[in-house]
Amino acid sequence: MKNKFSDKFGTKERLIEVAERLFAEKGFKGVSVREITSQAKVHLGAINYYFGSKEGLYLEVFQTRFLERAKRLKETFEKNLKDDDPNLEGVIRAFAKAIISGPLTEEEREIHFKLLAREMVRPSSILKLIVEEALNPFLVSFEEALKIYLPSLPPEKMRMAVLSILAQILYFNFARPKVQEVTGQKFDAHFEKFLIEHVVSFSLKGIEGLA
């Protein structure tokens, strides 16, 4: 049987690729070393050789894959800011667009948000890395853009506004199958645009109540 992995991937890369998918589907504790090495078609001792332990492999997945995608999301938001209307509505739209219909492929998006969801529900030591190197830089960038148009909003209300907007968007990403089922809408580009505008209008009304 032909190996399904491209020859351009070496053992280390295959392990990261397979482990990321399995960790996203089953969580860290739900995946064994044997399952990872079996699906990667490598020797059982390869994880210890390249990463020191399963924990080391888990850390590598986040350092090399998760943080790279998070960086692309932030960069897309900042690019969207330049392309959208220079007002409060444009800032919120740029943020929503970056996450809902941004640079990630469908497969990347699914894996990324499954990994994030698992760490939010059952946090490990990796959560600190996610918060400090992925979430905080993105949210600070968003908050600074909002402050231009909401200079008098108190810091505590600003932070709650940022988190509330993020929560809407994360839900639509975590629960895409359920959203499709409830709305009867296919999650295509047209529906993504509809959701983005919904987030914008809903958030603007919420911010009005805070001001």
Automatic annotation (TrEMBL):
Keyword Acetylation assigned: no
Q: TM spans, by residue? A: none
Q: Which Pfam families match?
A: CecR_C (PF09209), TetR_N (PF00440)
Q: Which residues form the HTH tetR-type domain?
A: 9-69
What is a GO molecular function of this protein? DNA binding
Record's keyword terms, sorted = DNA-binding
The UniProt entry, under PROSITE patterns, shows: HTH_TETR_1 (PS01081), HTH_TETR_2 (PS50977)
Q: Which parts of this chain does the entry mark as a DNA-binding region?
A: 32-51
Gene3D superfamilies per the UniProt record, alphabetical? Tetracycline Repressor, domain 2 (1.10.357.10)
Keyword match Zinc: no
Per its record, how is this protein called by name? Regulatory protein TetR
- What is the originating organism of this protein? Thermodesulfatator indicus (strain DSM 15286 / JCM 11887 / CIR29812)
What lineage does the source organism belong to?
Answer: Bacteria, Pseudomonadati, Thermodesulfobacteriota, Thermodesulfobacteria, Thermodesulfobacteriales
